[in-house]
Structure formats: structure tokens, C-alpha cells
């Protein structure tokens, strides 16, 4: 087992235990991570259908997020216009392909990879989007793309360095890597400490700050072009599921959970994104 920091290789110390997993903090760069087996077994176990359908991760039914996620993809399509022309995209962790669909609607042509076969099949059959079932850390291809996207994905890799190395190979020189992830360095994360909702191992295994993300990306041959906070929305059904799941462990939480039922499932709720960041890198 490897207790060294995946970014700077320094030693780490245990910070606290969450859901039975010890969150480790790097002694040097303060990156946080958990110890997991460095193997595809981890990915297959975590991303079973329960992840997308029974509320474990906050998703009661991932496919109900279709419109919101497609709109999220479109927003990134608009953002990218400031930095690059449209071309080909490879989307990592595509789930049912909704974000990819949004990017396509903004002129990108692409395909993706997703470990959960139910999700990948949905993309292929319902959306006619080429999403391959597979694990990115094992992905091999000679094809090259103008853009690689990792929306809410980088924190989940069992081998994050390998994932960035593969992204580097998949990109043409000067191609763009877009990452959106949770910001461990954000004010909400620091204020909430161990109660921050993104401390949700074992699906999340790395908790990045923008600095840590940049350090790792530079080591893997990328330079930062821009970063910011995403404009994100979730639907009422997802919001209720997220809150209920978190409330269940609190005294009186179930009562509060019942009150939430007055929120319509399809209501679009702005999600406070000050604990998320997006960052664009250029492949060197
Ligand atoms: Zn470190």
C-alpha cells in the first residue's frame, strides 16, 4: 500500500476517518487522498448501477439530469470559444453522455469513455453518442484529439497521474484539457472540515486544491491557460436526494428530509459552486 502523496511523493499523515476510510494529508503540499488499491477493480466496484440510481452518491436517477447536464456541456462549449476553435473532443467519465451532447451542440465532435456499462449503453443507444465502456487508466488509442474533458472525474481516479499521462497522449500538441473538480482549498471546504460533503470516499479518492492540480498537471506536460468557478445547476430531485442522504445521519434529519418533499423534482436549483473550480490546460 502506498501512503506517499500522489502529487509530490512526500509522506502523509492521517487526518480523519470518513465512511470507514482514513483521509490522508500530505506532509509537504497538503494534498488529501485515501489509500485505495491501484487497480481497475476499484473502479468497477464503485461505479456499479447503485452509484447512478439508488442515491448512494446523491443520484436517485442520473438520467433525469439530462437537460441540466446537457446545458452544462453547452456552457463549457461557450467558455471554450474564448480559447480555441471547435474540433474533436474525448470526454472522460461520460456517464450517459449528456455533457458530451452539450459540447456537440456547440460544435465539438467527439466520443468518450465510461466505466459503467448501463450508462455507456444509454449514451450509445439513446443518444447515438460513441461512449465506450472502459476504464480510462487502461485506455489505449493512437487517435488524437483537440480537447480532452474531465468534468467531475479527476478526483475519482485510482491512478490520477496515469490518467493525466493518457490525456497527454490523446491530445495533439497545443490541445486543451478541461478539468472541473471540487476545490479542497475553497472557503466552504475549509469551514466545514470533515463535514464537507465532498469527503465521500471511496468514490472520491483525491481532494485537490487548484495549486495541487496545477503542480500535477505541470509534471504531466500541461500549462494552465485559465481557471474559474462553474455556473452549475441541479434539479430538485437530485437536490432532495443529496440533502436527505446527508441528513439521515443527523438527529432530526429525517423530519427535515420530509419537509423537502415540497420542492418539485424538475425545479432547476442553482448549485453553489464556490467549492468547485474549472481549469484549462494547454498540452505542451
Ligand atoms: Zn504532496
Q: Which sequence of SSEs, written as H and E, runs from N to C?
A: EEEHHHEHEHEEHEHEHEEHHEE
Distance between the termini: 32 Å
Radius of gyration: 18 Å
Spatial order of strands in the largest sheet:
6-5-4-7-8-13-10
The proportion of residues in beta strands is 25-35%
Low-confidence stretches: none
Number of helices: 10
How would you explain this protein's 3D organization?
The protein is of the alpha/beta class and 284 residues long. Helix content is 32%, strand content 26%. It has helices spanning 40-46, 49-53, 66-80, 98-105, 117-126, 160-170, 187-192, 210-219, 236-247, 253-259; strands at 12-18, 21-26, 32-34, 88-92, 109-114, 131-133, 145-151, 171-182, 206-207, 222-228, 232-235, 268-271, 276-283. The strands form 3 sheets. Strands 6-5-4-7-8-13-10 form a 7-stranded mixed sheet, sandwiched between helices. The chain has a 4-stranded antiparallel sheet with strand order 1-2-3-9, with no helix packed on it. Helix 3 packs across helix 4 and helix 9 packs antiparallel against helix 10. The longest helix has 15 residues, at 66-80. 42% of the residues are buried. The model has no long low-confidence stretch (mean pLDDT 89). Zinc ion binds next to loops. Zinc ion (ZN) binds next to loops.
In short:
The protein is α/β, with parallel strands linked by helices. It has helices at residues 40-46, 49-53, 66-80, 98-105, 117-126, 160-170, 187-192, 210-219, 236-247, 253-259, and strands at residues 12-18, 21-26, 32-34, 88-92, 109-114, 131-133, 145-151, 171-182, 206-207, 222-228, 232-235, 268-271, 276-283. The two termini are 32 Å apart.
Amino acid at each position: 500500500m502506498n501512503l506517499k502523496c500522489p502529487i509530490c511523493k512526500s509522506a502523509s499523515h492521517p487526518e480523519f476517518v470518513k465512511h470507514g476510510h482514513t483521509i490522508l494529508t500530505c506532509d509537504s503540499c497538503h494534498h488529501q487522498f485515501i489509500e485505495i488499491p491501484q487497480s481497475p477493480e476499484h473502479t468497477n466496484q464503485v461505479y456499479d448501477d447503485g452509484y447512478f440510481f439508488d442515491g448512494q452518491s446523491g443520484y436517485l436517477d442520473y438520467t433525469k439530469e439530462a437537460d441540466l447536464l446537457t446545458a452544462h456541456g453547452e456552457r463549457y462549449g461557450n467558455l471554450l470559444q474564448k480559447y480555441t476553435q471547435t474540433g474533436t473532443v474525448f470526454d472522460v467519465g461520460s456517464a450517459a453522455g449528456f455533457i458530451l451532447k452539450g459540447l456537440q451542440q456547440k460544435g465539438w465532435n467527439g466520443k468518450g469513455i465510461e466505466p459503467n456499462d448501463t450508462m455507456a449503453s444509454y449514451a450509445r443507444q439513446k443518444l447515438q453518442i460513441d461512449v465506450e465502456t472502459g476504464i480510462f487508466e487502461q485506455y489505449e488509442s493512437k487517435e488524437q484529439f483537440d480537447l480532452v474533458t474531465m468534468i467531475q472525474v479527476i478526483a475519482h481516479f485510482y491512478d490520477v497521474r496515469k490518467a493525466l499521462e493518457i490525456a497527454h497522449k490523446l491530445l495533439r500538441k497545443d490541445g486543451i484539457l478541461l478539468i472541473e473538480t471540487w476545490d479542497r482549498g475553497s472557503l466552504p471546504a475549509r469551514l466545514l472540515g470533515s463535514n464537507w460533503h465532498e469527503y465521500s470516499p471511496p468514490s472520491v479518492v483525491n481532494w485537490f486544491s487548484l495549486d495541487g492540480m496545477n503542480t500535477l498537471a505541470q509534471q504531466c506536460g500541461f500549462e494552465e491557460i485559465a481557471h474559474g468557478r462553474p455556473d452549475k445547476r441541479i434539479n430538485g430531485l437530485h437536490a432532495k436526494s443529496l440533502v436527505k442522504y446527508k441528513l439521515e445521519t443527523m438527529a432530526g434529519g429525517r423530519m427535515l428530509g420530509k419537509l423537502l418533499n415540497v420542492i418539485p423534482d424538475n425545479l432547476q436549483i442553482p448549485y453553489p459552486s464556490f467549492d468547485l473550480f474549472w481549469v484549462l490546460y494547454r498540452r505542451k
